[in-house]
Amino acid sequence: MKLILRLLLTALAVVVLAKILPGVAVEGYGSAIIVAIVIALLRFIVQPILVLLTLPITIITLGLFLLIINAVIIMMADYFVGGFNVASIWWALLFSLLLSLFQSILFSLLNESK
Q1: What is the rounded CA–CA span in Å between residue 20 and residue 111?
Q2: pTM of the predicted structure, to 2 decimals
Q3: SS3 per residue for the chain
Q4: pLDDT tens across 3-47, in order?
């Protein structure tokens, strides 16, 4: 139940960010839910592999390269989901930063309601 609620909150954040950011577009709420699922799967499967492969760069940049990895995850979600469009890697970077911020706020509200 908590997983479904987290996915719905992430989809809500995707819709809000698509309305705010001009370089990001999502066609509807169904596409936003699919984007939330795809991002969750990519973060679960692909992100650990990318972190492991880019570990030397991540160490040299003191972890800042992880922001680029998050932007790549967003660009991959753009590739896999038809109703989701990100204009460039810079919009993906801003989108991933704001999505992480919104998720932390929404998930903290979810934990406080217990």
Answers
A1: 26
A2: 0.90
A3: CHHHHHHHHHHHHHHHHHHHCCCEEECCHHHHHHHHHHHHHHHHHHHHHHHHHCHHHHHHCCCCHHHHHHHHHHHHHHHHCCCEEECCHHHHHHHHHHHHHHHHHHHHHHHHCC
A4: 999 999 999 999 999 999 999 999 999 999 999 999 999 999 999
